[in-house]
Amino acid sequence: MSVKRGGLGTNLDALIPTSLSISGVEVGQQNEVPISAIAPNPRQPRTVFDEDALNELTQSIKEVGLLQPPVVREVSPGRYELIMGERRFRAAKNAGLKTIPVIIRATADNDLLRDALIENIHRSQLNALEEGAAYSQLLNDFGCTHEVLATRLGKSRPHISNTMRLLNLPASVQRKVAAGVLSAGHARALLGLTDEAEIERLASKIVSEGLSVRAIEEIIAAGIKPTKTKNMKTKTHSPKLAQIAEQLSDHFDTRVSVQSGKAKGKITIEFSGGEDLDRIVEILKKKN
Hints:
It is a single chain. The protein is 48% helix and 16% strand. By secondary structure, the chain is an alpha/beta fold. The chain has three domains: 11-166, Conserved hypothetical protein from pyrococcus furiosus pfu- 392566-001, ParB domain (Alpha-Beta Complex); 178-223, no CATH class; 229-288, no CATH class. The chain has a six-stranded mixed beta sheet. Helix 5 (128-140) packs across helix 7 and helix 9 packs parallel to helix 11. The radius of gyration is 21 Å and the shape is globular.
């Protein structure tokens, strides 16, 4: 079976070899097939797709490529039926793609396919976006949990969650990450902003001026409006506070900001979901 390189750089060629095996058993193959050769799954229970979200994904695919390959099964020579990834499949069609990368399932055992994908992440040299897409596919398509991924990959749950969040960045910023002109650290710092235009502006500033991750974090912190609490004048450039924030970030394995005023201060600990919040609470409960 011939394999074409698709999407971004190493993504599929690195993540899924021509033959995907585990314990000597072939569980899937990588290929790029004509989108016209793929039929939707007639047993798909989901019939309504959010149009705005679908349009956003379509635009992302146009600019960045299809990072998460749908899973299909071969029903006859050269013809396939969609198993997982109908939203990506629809967005790819809307984007006008003629061919798309897919995982052709060679077994009905999804656990084997999931385990093989996890094993291949260890051996792959993926950029941050491709890594996030791989995590997202394992969680959404194969019912994997953050805890299982963290244990199997030797990563922290916040790392997995924060890497997946990079997929929410504007497509133009994702393209800079994919091209290697914007680091994963810079991209994660940009997640502190919510305005898409502001994210794109600051991303361009990083590239043009060579700003450090710490500088970006300070710029973003300086742009946060102080609360209405009296005497709460935020100081964001204190080296001591920055050092404390960095130490706390390392301790909690998530982003922590420290603000100080004349009478009182504030420590903000970010978390990415219920499981991550529980983890942080357990750390807070422990006596040092």
